[in-house]
Amino acid sequence: MSRFRQNLRYAGQYFDNETGLHFNTYRYYAPEIGRFITPDPIGLAGGLNLYQYAPNPMTWIDPWGLSGEPIGSENNPFNSSGAARREAMRQAGIPISQQPTNQSRNSSGWEYRYKVPKPGGGTIPATVQQQTMDVSHPDQPHWEAGKVKVDPRTGETRMNDYGRPKIANPKGKAYYKNKCGG
């Protein structure tokens, strides 16, 4: 009986039998020491350590080894709006399995409102908003998520000029590809 050998490794690496290293298209990775054996081909744009592995291979998708940008960032957007929405929710600490208490849509896209648990009990309002017409990011659709800003004196939700709740910092933000020409 012959043995089958699988040369594909984690995150798209290919095991090179001759060197015993994992090949990533542009350079070799040594799993025993947890680093590459040649410098990053994009130089310092990938970080100060030219031999380091990507910070998180589950969220940094870079099949050619040239991006250096986390998935969902402005320069490396998700392929779908849904994936970007879920990432913004994760960043903001809103459970992606939770059902919204309210939803609406305007010319900029969808908005979902949630009640998320707060430490010590109770809930606090949160919002997830699709941004397709953000003047500070033209032609870069994205989702923003976070806790709703509340007036400390009145307890009322602070609204923006478009009738949506303002989002408190820190907030989650994830970009996705513009399917209409972008």
UniProtKB/TrEMBL annotation:
Region (Disordered): 92-111
Residues annotated as signal peptide: none
Cross-referenced InterPro entries: Rhs_assc_core, T6SS_VgrG/RHS
Biased composition (Polar residues): 96-109
Membrane-crossing residue ranges in chain numbering: none
Protein name: RHS repeat-associated core domain-containing protein
Source organism per UniProt: Photorhabdus khanii subsp. guanajuatensis
